[in-house]
């Protein structure tokens, strides 16, 4: 049975939602979903971004200044072929367009990190897995990080990201 909070399946996260209690979002990369559960999510425009105060340490393609918000920064990234994700600095309004996998993040004040797009059409939200042998990972901060971790982990066919 699913539990709210720190239910460990493959990956855990401490990402609170804006709509009440902790929710569960399971996102398979391959394989069949086996269990459905109700869930709640953060604001639509921030649902695929890392929580505030985390930044990517990947190589920077370029930095744009005077960018209004994280959503505008994401749109700039989407226009660049090489950009894979971004850092938006809420205090300086600088937007760093990043290259390579964005799963390496460090704690940093006033920064929002997110992927090139928030397309989650390959994700199944509100679905979990009941596999008997599930690996565990260190904490990941977005479904996209979990997907990258699973893709790079031998033997991983699907993952569960808990809000």
From TrEMBL:
InterPro entries: Apple, Pan_app. One of its GO terms (cellular component) is extracellular region. The keyword Signal applies. Residues 1-16 form the signal peptide. The keyword Disulfide bond applies. SUPFAM superfamilies: Hairpin loop containing domain-like. Residues 48-118 form the Apple domain. Keywords: Disulfide bond, Repeat, Signal. GO terms for biological process: proteolysis. This is PAN domain-containing protein. It comes from Toxoplasma gondii VAND.
């Amino acid at each position: 049975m699913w539990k709210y909070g720190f239910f460990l399946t493959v990956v855990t996260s401490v990402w609170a939602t804006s709509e009440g209690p902790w929710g569960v979002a399971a996102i398979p990369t391959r394989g069949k979903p086996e269990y459905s559960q109700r869930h709640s999510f953060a604001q639509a425009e921030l649902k695929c971004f890392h929580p505030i105060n985390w930044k990517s340490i990947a190589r920077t393609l370029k930095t744009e200044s005077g960018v209004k918000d994280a959503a505008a920064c994401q749109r700039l990234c989407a226009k660049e072929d090489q950009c894979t994700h971004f850092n938006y600095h809420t205090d300086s309004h600088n937007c760093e367009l990043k290259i390579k996998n964005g799963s390496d993040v460090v704690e940093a004040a006033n920064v929002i990190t997110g992927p090139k797009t928030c397309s989650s059409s390959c994700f199944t939200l509100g679905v979990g897995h009941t596999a008997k042998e599930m690996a565990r990972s260190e904490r990941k901060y977005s479904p996209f990080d979990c997907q990258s971790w699973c893709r790079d982990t031998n033997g991983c066919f699907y993952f569960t990201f808990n809000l």
